[in-house]
User: Fold this.
Amino acid sequence: MAITIKSAREIELMKEAGRILEIVHNELEKALRPGMSTMDIDRLGEEIIRSYDCIPSFLNYNGYPASICVSVNDEVVHGIPNKHRILKDGDIVSLDAGVIYKGYHSDAARTHGIGEISKEAQDLIRVTKECFFEGIKYAKEGNHLFDISAAIDSHAARHGYGVVRDLCGHGIGTALHESPQIPNYKENRRGPKLKAGMTLAIEPMINMGTWEVNWLDDEWTVVTRDHSLSAHYENTVLITEGEPVLLSLTQKS
Ligand code: CO
Assistant:
């Protein structure tokens, strides 16, 4: 499948989708506290998304039963919210959310600490975010897609972390997942050329230990095989001839 180039009108709609998603993430971060359930996060997230006349894009996507993916500690992504899963001091929690605004998608993820977290956990969260920013240094017209992947991989490797290989970033637009797939690990080729107007969801998933993962019996929750902590950081990004535009991160990070 070809990588779509968005028109000026489509880009405006994706900017609005991204701006709303940024608000959703900021509100969820403010609400996080020990004692709340992962289901509480989903309820709140869905309510905020709908209050902006958006549709939660994950809800019922391939049967996924919630609006926000809430993944705790050794859960990498796609954790299913549960009213019995209570966040406690020292946990780390990855929140992944997607919205559809007038037919256009935005997708973003953040990992947060609950209360006081270990130095090791703080480092993992920070480096995962840094991996994203290292990657997008290459996100401009004329470069190649896997230049982004290689930059993410080498930053994680520098810290001795495992880069999840079973899941990737992706193109995004009128569908949550469009071409191309965007690995977070180095490839032996540079991949397709980037062009202005491409919109990409770039999402490093980084483990403190091995890169290997398992799926739980719920068929969704991805966990680290060695049960080490995992972090996730994602934004929807617009490629231009110059600096990339972070559609889901407009305020200073
Ligand atoms: Co995504």
